[in-house]
Structures are given as C-alpha cells and as structure tokens.
Design brief:
Strand content: 35-45%
Number of strands: 5
Strand order of the largest sheet: 1-2-5-4-3
Helix content: under 10%
Largest sheet: 5 strands, antiparallel
Number of domains: 1
Distance between the termini: 37 Å
Radius of gyration: 16 Å
Amino acid sequence: MKVSYDPRTDTLSAIFMEDVQVTESDEEKPGVILDYDQEGHLVSLEILEASQRIMQTRKIEFETIEHSTAMEVQ
C-alpha cells in the first residue's frame, strides 16, 4: 500500500494494489473517488481538496491489529 499527499494539487491518494488496471471509478461523495479493477476489488482511493477534508494531510499512522484466535464467551 502507498499513501501520498500532493500539496500542489491538494490531493491525497491511497494505492492498495499497484500495477493493476482500473476498470471503473466511482465518486462516492463529491471529491472522494474510488477505483476498482475488473473483478470489483478496490484498487485506490483519491481525495480531492484534501486539506479541506482532512485536518493533518502530512501525518499518517499505520497499524496492523493482531487478533487472538480464541473467542471470549460472555
């Protein structure tokens, strides 16, 4: 995964799958574009006018959450 912010265009992009052809793009909400491959998998996300929508465009945190295999019963 690759996340980038371009201050010149004020665009935040998250690429989930590189070197995959985009066959469909949807603008779910104005300025939020989702790109899909031929099988319908999400390939990338683009946010236009990012500084207007996201408070900290230059800061990112990434975390993989580990889940226990044992289930709790209440």
